[in-house]
Amino acid sequence: MLIPLVPQGGEHDNVIKIKDAKAGKTFPWRLEYNCPVHEHWNIVHTGMLIPECRQVYICPDNCLRGVIMTAQEMGALDRISSVMPDEREISGGSLEAITIEGVTDVLHKVKKRPRAVQLFPVCTHHLLGCDMRYIEDEIEKRFPDIDFMECFMDPVCQKLTTTPEQRQRFQMMKVLADHPQDEDLSSVTMLGENLRVQESDLTQLLAQEGLELRQVQDCRTYDEYLSLGASFLWLTRSPLSAYGLKKAADLAGRRSLYMPAAIRADEIEAQEKALLEQVYLARGMKEEEAAGRAAERAAVVREKEEERTQELCRETLHAVGDLPVYLDYVGIPRPLGFARFLLEHGFRVQRVIADGISPEEAEDLSFVQAHYPDLEVMSSQAPASLYERERMNIREKMLAIGPKAAYFTGSPYFVNVIEQDGATGFLGVQHILRLMQQAVLQPKNNEIVTGKGLGLPGVWEVSR
Amino acid sequence: MRETYRVLPVYAGDVSGIAGALYELGGMTVIHDPSGCNSTYNTHDELRWYKEPSAIFISGLNMRDAVLGNDKKFIDDTLEAAASLPQKPAFIALCNSPLPWLNGTDFHALSRIIENKSGIPTFYVSSNGCRDYAEGAGRAFLSLLEKFDGELREKAAGHQSVRAAGKNITVNVIGMMPLDFAHPESLRSLKERMAKNGFAIQSVFAQTDGTSEDLLADILSSSAADVSLVLSTSGIPAAQYLKAHYGVPFVVGVPLEEDDPVFEQLRRAAAGLNYEACLYTAGKDNMPTIHSQGASDCAHTADNKNRPENGQTDTASQCIAVLSEPVLAGSLASLLERRTGRKVLVINPLEGRVWNGHETRAHSSRRLASEKKAALADPLPEDRTRQAAGRSAGTFDDSIQILRPGDLSLFGEEEMEGGIAAAGVREIYCDPMYAEIFSEGITLRPMPTLALSGRVYRNTFINYFDTASVEALISHEHE
User: Fold this and answer.
1) ipTM of the complex
2) Mutate to test the interface with A, among B2, B8, B10, B127 (most CBs of A within 10 A)
3) Among A379, A407, A422, A378, residue whose Cα is nearest residue A200
4) In this predicted model, what pLDDT tens digit does every residue of B298-320 receive, in sequence order?
5) 3-state secondary structure of B151
6) CATH assignment of B14-147, given 3.40.640.10, 3.40.1110.10, 3.40.50.1980, 3.30.1360.120?
7) In angstroms, rounded to a whole number, what is the distance separating the alpha carbons of residues A334 and A357?
8) For A211-230, what is each residue's pLDDT tens digit?
9) Is A130 touching B (CB cutoff 8 A)?
10) Hey, are the CB atoms on A88 and B77 less than 8 Å from each other?
């Protein structure tokens, strides 16, 4: 029996009203479209943050090409190698042997012996039931002087368990666990972050406490990277790193704190209080005293920065006016929270582009559903989104925040950032507001969003 | 180890070749894959993605479904996606990455079910994510023709009157893939060159420069053309099909010059005269030559009219090579030989199939022994459509020689590195990325290729159908 395929171009489920949205699996898992926006970082980019570390991928042709070309575009071909088993080896039961011998061969061939190696077996290793423990043990035995990070590039698992990004970040943190803790408690380390933490209330608070904020982006050698483990407190802001941070910090016996992007004043204040509390507790302060003092300090920051943020918000609203605003999850890690913030301050937010609403945004979801039920949420992956740019056919001037919002609207007026540009806290919100002001004044070439790994050296560029 | 790559990327995979081949035909391509194939394809292997949307999707396969099986989801999702498009797709093509190949997914059955439920012609393009783009694209073109054979038959029926009317010779251009010919003006320049030489374009597999209203309709009228011009190895299976079933002869070669010798062969083929199917490899009888691999002295035969005497060898210090997709490489080598009188070695980096009468070394090692015999006899042994149509594999002309005796097929970084050194190459035309593995003293003449270096050199792609561009490429040889 024929299934009626008409009317073509009718209702599309790639866009829903927020009142109909739910957290988690907001859109059904169906065929997936991949829009031409590649500014977000992938596992290759993230892995390259560790100095003197090489990545080795063991996978068939089609999977392999993407990661090698990622390295090529960022000018890091000299830090990545690969093993490409053929059909007979994949299907004939020798994938384990070829993985071991291939990695061994690659490491003998490279001109400079790496201090660490991130190993990436793939989906086929899972499906064929390869004994990964045996593979890893054997390779480690052959190269006892190299630290191996047992990563995976296995997207076949990502919908049902942890993602390759989550496991890679755990492995990157795990090697820090053996480093002894500094006795003087003089530093805090930010881990699992692609972008450097910008100057912010976080950095200012830590500086006021006499604490150095250490980051992988400052490391020039592998030893410097390992020394990040010396801090008494490990932090992360990335939801992709929360899983690894907790596990690695537990292994190391360190304090850890997950500080997801906070937008509203009360969220930021609570988060900064939690951070200071950890610092004071580590210094031996009693819980009650630590909590009290931390609250006091966080309130001072709020008092100083909240009004400044409000003032900047008014300025930005004046600049943006009644322009429709579209924002995405690549640019803003808390898209719904930021949409709520903008809506509450009078901006005309039209649509949030997000393939799912994180359970971390459940409160924002409830609030926006109650107060702004017509806000739209759009999946960037749904097949119907392939023609969304043409369907929207936006002719009026509008503001996009994030590269996917820029692509789908086709607007030359956009804030071209990923991961909130590494900004955090009150100053982080202020930073994005300033970028919004600039964006409505300075049109850009929309095609730049097709570049790979924003902020990294890129050998491929289009004119800006 | 031949499997290891210290620094080089691999060529675009079969799935990218399939998606690229079908890109502009108004169909929908579904890649059964967990994730990544689509991103790799549209980031590195496809320049059209930002400006010209095409219905190419992945299935988002997860481990539970890969292990336990959930074909119903794949079918339902495909039907739903087809319904979500602004226009009903002209066809649905299915292909896959390694996992569905490993778990034995029956794509022919899936195709039939999807077609029965949707009424949209649906076919499978055999793939597994382990082969290169040329093979994928070749299979895609062939699968398309097989699926729409009824239309081809109709068009072919009216062909005689066209031929009798004495109009311009009509030509199918097959294998015009951005992965090989990425310069944006390539197709326009080729059409101009063809027109100047008195040819009319019947179809282009498969790109448009905006002058064709319906590229798929053009292709489905390819059976009515007088002759086919094959520009790359990806075009050979389709050209063979049109020849075997509709008597459309084909000539292999890239017309790099305004009055390229390939044009004369096209005229002869269209007129029913004797012709050389591949001029630059043409020997006395144009039959395959079985020979051992590994020639290291740059001595090889080619078309005997313009090439140096057989047996004459260059000294190592003079050796020139072209390392590229073999049809382009052979054509350029032939041009260089005509201009310089020096021998030029062709190096084929693709896995390829039976391009010089026997499998490439790499390819033979990549096949199960039981597959080998069938592969030699039939370019697509697993294709069932043709078998179902009652046509024997023997109707295909597998004798076409794309490489010349003495030319090399080198697969993978290690074999390439060692092979080039052993051949004594001192000057080489190839993608700039190969510089990573060349020893000092080898002069590289850059030929950026989308299929290898992706978009990195996109501002310097060469228009091989523009005289000034080709002359600039080979200008050093006149110095």
Assistant:
1) 0.92
2) B10
3) A422
4) 433 333 333 444 434 444 446 89
5) helix
6) 3.40.50.1980
7) 9
8) 999 999 999 999 999 999 99
9) no
10) no
